[in-house]
Amino acid sequence: MDNFTLRDGTLHAEDVSLPAIADAVGTPVYVYSTATLERHVHVFRDAVAGLGKGEPLVAFAVKANPNKAVLATLARAGMGADVVSGGELYRALDAGMDPNKVVFSGVGKTADEMAQALNAGIGQFNIESEPELDMLSAVATRLGKVAQIAIRVNPDVIAGTHAKISTGGKENKFGIDYHAAPAAYAHAASLPGIRVRGVAVHIGSQLTDLLPLEAAFGRVGALIRDLRAAGHDITHADLGGGLGVPYDPARPLPPSPAEYGAMVARATAGWDARLMFEPGRLIVANAGVLVSRVIRVKQGATAPFVVVDAAMNDLLRPSLYDAYHDIRAVTPTGERAVTNIVGPVCETGDTFALGREMDVVAADDLVAFMTAGAYGATMASTYNSRALVPEVLVAGDRFAVVRERPPIEALAQADRLPPWL
Ligand code: LLP
C-alpha cells in the first residue's frame, strides 16, 4: 500500500499533484511520501511486536535511502539505523538517530570508521571476519572502550533472489561460515576490547520466499544454543533485512510483513534473546516514485521508443539487475500500447522497459516510475555529466525539496587542471 493515487485523473503523492512538483522542481525528481514511510514503520513494528525478549529493535538499512529528511522521519517514528560506512553513520546521527540504536554492518570497516563508531557510542558492530575482530579490539583498547558485537554468520542458504543481491551462500563474501562461528566466538571472548552480545544474519535482498529465511534462522537458533552451552552471554539476535516488495503488479505478492512476523515467531520460539531487524527496501521502496518527463517519442522497429528525461544514472536498478519498475502516465488517458521506455544516456543498457504494455504517453507528458524509494536516488550518479537527481518529501498537502539538484557547473568546478596544462 502506498499514498500515490489518482485524483481527478492525475497521480498525486498524498494531497500534492505530481505535476505541481514537476513544475516547481523540474524533472527528473524523486518524490517520497511521509504517510507511506510512517505506515511502513508501523506495519513492520506491529508484525514483530512482542517477539523475543523486550521490544525488538528495528534498524533501518540506511543504504536503501540515506536522505536526511527520510532518516529524520524514520528516527522520529522510533527506528534505529543499520549502517555500512562512516558516511552512513554520519548521516544517521546527523538526522537524529539514537546511537544506541545503530548497528554497523559490512565486510570492510576501516580502523578510522571503527573509531568514529566507538566514539559515537553505537549499539552494536556486526563482525564479518576474525581479522576484523582483531582490528576492532585494538581500536577499542586504544580508545579505552569496549565494542559490543554480534558475529554475522554465513548460514549457507540459497536465498532465491538475484545473484547480485544474494549474500548468504558460502561462496559469498559475507559473514563467517556458521561451522567456523564457535571458534570465532571463542576468539572474540578472549579479546580485551570486545564484548560478545549476539548473533547476526542477513541472506539477501528482495526475498519473495520465506523458506530460505526460516532455514537461516534455524541455523542461528542452533548456534545460539551451542554458544550459550560454551559459556557465551548471547542476549541479542539480529535477523537482518531482505523482505521483498511488490514491483510488478502482474506478479504474485511477496509475503506480507505479518506473514514474515509469524514465521519469525515460529523460528525464534524459545530463543530468549532481544530480536533486531534491518529492513531497508520494505520501509522505503513504495514510499517513493521517480517522476520524469517524456522528451520525445521515436519510431522503433517493433514498438515506439519513449525517450524520458530520467536515465540509468538516476535509477540504476533496471540496467544493473534487470529490475522491473511499474511505469505509469501521471495523467493517464486510459489508452494502452506496447512501448519501449528509454533514457537519454548513450548506452543500450539505459532501458527501463522493452515491449511493455503501458499507458500511452506523448512528448511533454509526465511518467512515474513506481516503487523507486529504495536503492533509487542513493545509487544515482552523474554519468553522461547529468546533474544528480533532486528529492522531494511530501507530507499531506505540503512538499519540500529535501535534496537540491546541483547546478551542472558544480560538476565541472570540482575538476582541477594539473600545473602542466
Ligand atoms: N542488512 C544488511 C547487512 C544488508 O546488506 C542489507 C542490504 C540490508 C540489511 C537491507 O536489505 P533490504 O531489507 O533492503 O532488502 N541495490 C540492491 C539491493 C542491495 C541490498 C544490499 N544489502 C537493489 O537495488 O535491489
From TrEMBL:
<dbReference type="InterPro" id="IPR029066">
    <property type="entry name" value="PLP-binding_barrel"/>
</dbReference>
<dbReference type="InterPro" id="IPR022644">
    <property type="entry name" value="De-COase2_N"/>
</dbReference>
<feature type="binding site">
    <location>
        <begin position="278"/>
        <end position="281"/>
    </location>
    <ligand>
        <name>pyridoxal 5'-phosphate</name>
    </ligand>
</feature>
<feature type="domain" description="Orn/DAP/Arg decarboxylase 2 C-terminal">
    <location>
        <begin position="30"/>
        <end position="373"/>
    </location>
</feature>
<dbReference type="InterPro" id="IPR002986">
    <property type="entry name" value="DAP_deCOOHase_LysA"/>
</dbReference>
<keyword id="KW-0456">Lyase</keyword>
<keyword id="KW-0210">Decarboxylase</keyword>
<keyword id="KW-0457">Lysine biosynthesis</keyword>
<keyword id="KW-0028">Amino-acid biosynthesis</keyword>
<keyword id="KW-0663">Pyridoxal phosphate</keyword>
<dbReference type="Pfam" id="PF02784">
    <property type="entry name" value="Orn_Arg_deC_N"/>
</dbReference>
<feature type="binding site">
    <location>
        <position position="317"/>
    </location>
    <ligand>
        <name>substrate</name>
    </ligand>
</feature>
<dbReference type="InterPro" id="IPR000183">
    <property type="entry name" value="Orn/DAP/Arg_de-COase"/>
</dbReference>
<feature type="binding site">
    <location>
        <position position="281"/>
    </location>
    <ligand>
        <name>substrate</name>
    </ligand>
</feature>
<feature type="binding site">
    <location>
        <position position="347"/>
    </location>
    <ligand>
        <name>substrate</name>
    </ligand>
</feature>
<feature type="modified residue" description="N6-(pyridoxal phosphate)lysine">
    <location>
        <position position="63"/>
    </location>
</feature>
<comment type="function">
    <text>Specifically catalyzes the decarboxylation of meso-diaminopimelate (meso-DAP) to L-lysine.</text>
</comment>
<feature type="binding site">
    <location>
        <position position="375"/>
    </location>
    <ligand>
        <name>substrate</name>
    </ligand>
</feature>
<feature type="binding site">
    <location>
        <position position="242"/>
    </location>
    <ligand>
        <name>pyridoxal 5'-phosphate</name>
    </ligand>
</feature>
<feature type="binding site">
    <location>
        <position position="321"/>
    </location>
    <ligand>
        <name>substrate</name>
    </ligand>
</feature>
<dbReference type="InterPro" id="IPR022653">
    <property type="entry name" value="De-COase2_pyr-phos_BS"/>
</dbReference>
<dbReference type="InterPro" id="IPR009006">
    <property type="entry name" value="Ala_racemase/Decarboxylase_C"/>
</dbReference>
<dbReference type="Pfam" id="PF00278">
    <property type="entry name" value="Orn_DAP_Arg_deC"/>
</dbReference>
<feature type="binding site">
    <location>
        <position position="375"/>
    </location>
    <ligand>
        <name>pyridoxal 5'-phosphate</name>
    </ligand>
</feature>
<comment type="pathway">
    <text>Amino-acid biosynthesis; L-lysine biosynthesis via DAP pathway; L-lysine from DL-2,6-diaminopimelate: step 1/1.</text>
</comment>
<protein>
    <recommendedName>
        <fullName>Diaminopimelate decarboxylase</fullName>
        <ecNumber>4.1.1.20</ecNumber>
    </recommendedName>
</protein>
<comment type="similarity">
    <text>Belongs to the Orn/Lys/Arg decarboxylase class-II family. LysA subfamily.</text>
</comment>
<comment type="subunit">
    <text>Homodimer.</text>
</comment>
<feature type="domain" description="Orn/DAP/Arg decarboxylase 2 N-terminal">
    <location>
        <begin position="36"/>
        <end position="285"/>
    </location>
</feature>
<dbReference type="InterPro" id="IPR022643">
    <property type="entry name" value="De-COase2_C"/>
</dbReference>
